[in-house]
Amino acid sequence: MNAITVENLTKKLGDFTAVDSFSFDVKKAEIFGFLGANGAGKTTVIKMLCGLLTSTSGKATVAGFDINAQSESIKRNIGYMSQKFSLYEDLTVMENLNFFGGVYGLKNRVLKDRIDWAVEMAGLRGRTSSLTGPLPVGWKQRLALGCALLHRPQIVFLDEPTGGVDPLSRRRFWDLIHTLTDEGTTVFVTTHYLDEAEYCNTIMLIHAGKIVAGGSPRQLKTEHIRYPMLEVNCTDIIEALGELQQQDWVIESSVFGTLLHVSVGDEEKHRPLIKDVLSAKGIEVLRIDRIVPSLEDVFIHLVDRGSN
Ligand SMILES: Nc1ncnc2c1ncn2[C@@H]1O[C@H](COP(=O)(O)OP(=O)(O)OP(=O)(O)O)[C@@H](O)[C@H]1O
Ligand SMILES: [Mg+2]
User: What is the C-alpha to C-alpha distance for residues 3 and 28, in angstroms, rounded to an integer?
Assistant: First the structure.
């Protein structure tokens, strides 16, 4: 059973194609993520699925409703947390909750119960009379999530919910997302943090308006990176990278922080060669480890290949 189905969904803005024929399904109660850099097309897709933007062509259903013909029904069944939180900064926490509850048509006892739930879920007890503007970003983020969930939507769209949020708050936010899916809610989330993509059941890698690849984090790593990957800790990494890139037995190499990631055809044969080649140039090799590729490796692999 799918919560969302998308077939050849396209958005053109004049001559520019912001979203080029996307097709994918989102299963019920999964965490489904779009991972992509700025301008990849993530927000444009979410807006089309939420009925906030018309598509140029293609089809999609959200909670069983057609995005082109039934957008009002969709709006009743989804929650949407926009990229820039839509909270009113000059209202208190409670006033924001009341406002959004009202927008979703909640009243009296039901409204009160749902606000109690949201305050508890977001850890905002004791803060409900605080003004929203000065709250720390992590608190605003949880309040925005609470507001988006007041009417118990089946599906919630979170557009870069953790931008600008500190690591501890991000972690706490992801715990909340897991609780939601455990309770049966489908979560559609966008991010450009690779570590967050690892928390998703399914991820689509998006680049410049196209789906580059999709699957579980495990599938993406095993299906796209087929060669052993070695992590090299050495001095002068930029020079070392240049040197390795000239070797025909090096399949791929890139800089990761202060380390190099190098794919080779045969670990046993090529591991000592890395050391030989670099030592010959006066570069000191401190360590070489076999590693499991990260999603960042997959992303670099696919996007580099796509642009060649
Ligand atoms: N109304 C518009 N008019 C013209 N171009 C637009 C419009 N909205 C979006 N775009 C362009 O469409 C592309 C996709 O934008 P979108 O906002 O969907 O990307 P995104 O993946 O959400 O990026 P970010 O990570 O920065 O939020 C970008 O190149 C953007 O400049
Ligand atoms: Mg966006």
Answer: 5
**Is 192 domain-assigned?**
yes
Q: What is the DSSP letter of 92?
A: B
Q: Determine if ligand 1 sits within 6 Å of the CB of residue 70.
A: no
User: Do 273 and 209 reside in the same domain of the chain?
Assistant: no
State the pLDDT at residue 306.
Answer: 54
Q: Is the pLDDT of residue 265 over 50?
A: yes
SS3 of 130, please?
coil
Q: Which of 9, 12, 42 to mutate to test the pocket of ligand 1 (most atoms within 8 A of CB)?
A: 42
- Total structural domains within the chain: 2
pLDDT band, residue 300 (cuts 50/70/90): confident
- Which amino acid is residue 281, in one-letter code? K
Model confidence pLDDT, tens digit, residues 105-121: 899 999 999 999 999 99
> Is 307 part of a structural domain of the chain?
no
Q: In angstroms, what is the span from residue 83 Cα to ligand 2's centroid?
A: 6
Confidence (pTM): 0.88
